[in-house]
Amino acid sequence: MIRGLGAATLRELRQLLGALRSAQRPPGLGDLPSLIRSSGLPVRCLGEPVAALPWTEAVEHTAYRSVQEALTNIRKHAPGAEATVSLSRETPDGPVLVVDIHSTRPTAAATATAVRIPGGGHGLSGLRERAELLGGRLEAAPQKDGGFHVRVTLPEPRSAKTPASGPAEPQPPTT
To answer: What is the distance between the alpha carbons of residues 23 and 19, in angstroms, rounded to a whole number?
Structure first.
């Protein structure tokens, strides 16, 4: 009896979690304007309107999280800096979403009066892992101008359907 009740409870919990997950779409490219407006930073946006392109939910969410983390890091570590967010689509070997976030050198006045915001220190490494899981990569480095640059490249999975191309073509076996 207890075993049956436990199994039934677990089934109901799984159904509830499934319903909650399906009701909430993770943020994606279409949510970037709102994220940028609410960042509290002066942000310039460049690039193509890539939000209209048919990226998978995982690619869009990873791009969103990458911009979110980079803007958070600018706010925390480079007070007074300005940011540039650029999105582009490249096609070297298939569609690739490229997200570039660059910050200028922080201002001395803002740095002197900045309040230290604690963090876990795992943001960029977590984003690198997320990008790699999708077959992409994350590069992050200080720049000669005193700013910082984050670049995330995220390939569209080959099996994804797109309105322009239809299903992916099967590849001949290589020998």
So the answer is: 6
The distance from CA 27 to its chain's CA centroid, rounded to whole angstroms, is: 9
Q: How many CB atoms lie within 10 A of CB 82?
A: 17
| 150: nearest Cα among 53, 82, 67, 94 | 67
Q: How many CA atoms lie within 13 A of 19 on its CB side?
A: 6
Question: How is residue 88 annotated by DSSP?
Answer: E
The residues, any chain, with a CB within 8 Å of residue 2's CB and separated by 6 or more, are: none
| The pLDDT of residue 108 | 72
Q: Which positions ≥6 away from 154 have C-beta within 8 Å? A: 55, 59, 62, 63, 96, 97, 98, 99, 131, 134, 135, 136
C-alpha pair distances (Å), 18 with each of 8, 13, 24, 62: 15, 8, 10, 21
The half-sphere exposure of 56 on its side-chain side, counting CA atoms within 13 A, is 14
Compute mean pLDDT per 10 residues along the chain, 175 residues long, and list them: 64 63 81 92 83 81 95 88 92 85 82 60 86 95 94 78 41 45
Q: Is 1 helix (H, G, I), strand (E, B) or coil?
A: coil
Q: Tell me the whole-structure pTM to 2 decimals.
A: 0.72
Q: Which of 8, 89, 101 is nearest to 49 (CA)?
A: 89
